[in-house]
Design brief:
The chain is α+β, with helices and mostly antiparallel strands. The protein has a single domain, classed as Methylpurine-DNA glycosylase (MPG) (3-methyladenine DNA Glycosylase, Chain A, Roll). Strands 1, 2, 3, 4, 5, 6, 7, 8 and 9 form a nine-stranded antiparallel sheet that branches. Strand 1 and strand 2 form a beta hairpin. The longest helix is centred in the first third of the chain and has 8 residues. It is globular and about 45 Å long.
Length: 249
């Protein structure tokens, strides 16, 4: 039965709430081998776990953003050409793409879609539900509700860096995802801080959040013209609305 621990397994390295277990690799791959705009809302409520045993940290996702490669001016892969940084996005689904933001924050994406298309889901926020002591040590002095609020903080809580970019999400490989048993209430709107055309919340309403949940950050629109420091520069304004997520099981 989905979500029920397998008694034949002598040891499950992940102690997840509600008896959930990480999705089997083939089932997870089937879920991820779809466009990011379909995968992203289904990841709300999923638990991403990095590490094993006492070193494991798990974050229940409450905020994500979808990026669609060459069809998305907000994507790192908009050019359609792999670079030394973005090459994991062009690989098959089921890997992580980690990039450095502002030279400080490690931001984690789940690669999905068809091979070579470069589509992914940015993990923007969530609640630490496994290994909270480890997460506290990594984010010293931060309130528990803010440990994984914002994409850089998700990466720091999970202990992932750019050195992990390209790692597979698979059982026994130290990164796993437990999918939610049922769809969550999800609201869709504009992506945070994306400037230029890709920040348009009407054309690209690809930020998905669980309203009122721990780890959800405030919306701040990017600049409409994509440039900062210009007199009279205007930002995008959000148009968040409910989204009917499809079941993940």
């Amino acid at each position: 039965m989905p979500g029920t621990p397998d008694p034949s397994r002598p040891h499950d390295p992940f102690d997840l709430p509600g008896g959930l277990v990480p999705a089997a690799d083939d089932r997870l791959l089937a879920f991820l081998t779809r466009p990011a705009t379909e995968v992203a809302p289904g990841l709300i409520g999923a638990i991403v776990v990095v590490g094993q045993g006492e070193d494991a940290v798990g974050v229940r996702l409450t905020e994500v953003e979808a990026y669609l490669g060459p069809d998305d001016p907000g994507s790192h892969a908009y050019s359609g050409v792999p670079t030394a940084r973005t090459w994991p996005m062009f690989g098959p689904a089921g890997h992580v793409y980690v990039y450095r933001s502002y030279g400080i924050h490690s931001c984690v994406n789940v690669v999905c879609g068809r091979d070579g298309y470069a589509t992914g889901v940015l993990l923007r926020g969530g609640e630490v539900v496994v290994g909270i002591e480890t997460a506290r040590a990594r984010r010293a002095g931060i309130d528990d509700r803010r440990l994984a609020r914002g994409p850089g903080n998700v990466g720091q809580s999970l202990g992932l860096t750019t050195a992990d970019s390209g790692r597979p999400i698979a059982s026994g490989r130290g990164i796993a995802i437990a999918l939610p048993e049922r769809p969550r209430a999800v609201v869709a709107g504009g992506r945070v801080g994306v400037s230029g055309a890709g920040g348009d919340p009407v054309a690209y309403p690809w930020r998905f959040v669980e309203p009122g949940a721990v780890g959800v950050s405030s919306y701040r629109g990017g600049l409409r013209d994509g440039r900062s420091g210009q007199p009279g520069a205007q930002r995008w304004h959000d148009g968040a609305r409910p989204y009917a997520a499809e079941p993940t099981r």
